[in-house]
Amino acid sequence: MPDALLLSLLVAAVAIGWWLGRRERHGTSDPAQPATLTRDYFVGLNYLLNEQPDRAIEAFVAALEVNSDTIDTHITLGNLFRTRGEADRAVKIHQNLLARPTLTTGQSEQVQLELSRDFLKLGLLDRAERLLQQLVRESSHDPTRHTAKQLLVELFDREGEWQAALDVAHPTLVRQHDEIRRAAAHWLCELAAQARQTASPGVARKQLRQALSIDPKCVRANLSLAALAMDTARYREAIRVLMRIPDQDLDFVPTMLEPLQHAHRLLDDDAGLATCLEQLLARAAFTSLVILLAETRRRQEGVQAAIDLVTEQLDRTPSLGGLDYLLDLYYQQQQSSGEPDSRIRLLKQHTHALLQARPRHRCQRCGLTGEPLHWQCPRCRSWGTTRPITGIEGE
Ligand SMILES: [Zn+2]
Question: Which ranges form a coiled coil (predicted)?
Answer without folding.
Answer: none
